[in-house]
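Dear colleagues,

For the upcoming journal club I promised to circulate an example of a predicted protein-ligand complex. I picked one with phenylalanine because it came up in last month's discussion. The inputs are reproduced below in full, followed by the predicted structure.
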Amino acid sequence: MFAAFIACEKKQDSTNTGNNNTTPKSGDTIKIGEYGSLTGEKATFGQSTKKGIELAQEEINKAGGLLGKQVEIIVEDTRGLPQESTTVVQKLIDKDKVIAVLGEVASTNSLAGGAVCQEKQVPMITPSSTNADVTKIGDQIFRVCFVDDFQGEVMAKFAANTLKVKKIAILRDNGSDYSKGLSNFFEQTFKKLGGEIIAIESFQDKDSDFSAQLTKLKGLKPEALYVPGYYTQAGQIAQQARKNGITVPIMGGDGWDSQTLFDIGKDALNGCYISNHYTIEDPDPDVQKFITSFKAKFGETPDALAALAYDAAKIMFDSIKRAGSTDKKAIRDAIAQTKDFKGVTGVITIGANRDAVKSAVILEIQDGKYKFKESVKPDNAPVASTETAPATTPEIKAVAIK
Ligand code: PHE
């Protein structure tokens, strides 16, 4: 046993520290697990997330690491599946002995992986799962993004007040907790505002032909469609809707955010709207610095997943530093105490329910690009987020959600 341990100690780890100059010996590192959809239908979610975390890791390691050690991120691919999420999180905790976990993106997968973290008492931060139930799993589970009650409300208000539409049809993914939840919250608010949901049609995860649903919806003459799904299907739905003669605006949520959406949906996406977590048009110097560093490292513009992942990793590192130890309970408590952390996706304070209260942005799609429309602040935003948030230029003015 002892000999094996020594041998293992001598083995150099050259892959995961994000900083080749100071490659530490295995065993000398702070090990954090990451689980995400690196392949499969939601691959860009996992890949963007991985890049955001890598950038944060590189920065902390260049600055000397944490508690005198380099940070090692052990990454596992969930292939976008909940069963696989369970398996890989078990592996990260039992075999790799990570002291904390980052992930997943899709809420259904965070619900699966989160249950394992809770059972094994290992703190987890999801950068981007917005379904309310995720953090309800228990006291080990945190998020640094807003929740879908808010996201659904934001889009419903935009539809009613800005687009001024009255009749909306919903097309949702019944295999996704995220899609079902967001659809419900949108419906609640839209009805409260006097709008009518004239139909709810659904599809399942792997579907790619939506003509039956779209033909039915077209006959009902909706003034807009709401498609709270993920980018692969959203792009296909936009394409097929336009072919079917449906010309009204299509609205979606953060789940649309992927370069692949544009590759699939192309011009059919013009005049569509999504709610999201951040905009690259934000003039905040920290946001612009993040975008510049990300572009320099990866040759692409960071999407919301990358930005949220960067913030989640930085909050994890900051919490380990404040905990002053690798004790999981101390790290959990430090995450819970996160207050006024200035991230690139906003100022983050972890509340009593382990969620972050943050603003959302509405983006319009035009020729394969997002155009910032407005930023929407939740009623119960922590005071600090408006006071310490950097000066917003005229075009990034926050509108209170009322
Ligand atoms: N909010 C989505 C979910 O919970 C994930 C997501 C976040 C996708 C941000 C894209 C951008 O499933």
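Two points we might discuss: The two ends are 64 Å apart (CA to CA). The longest helix spans residues 43-62.

See you all on Thursday,
B. R.
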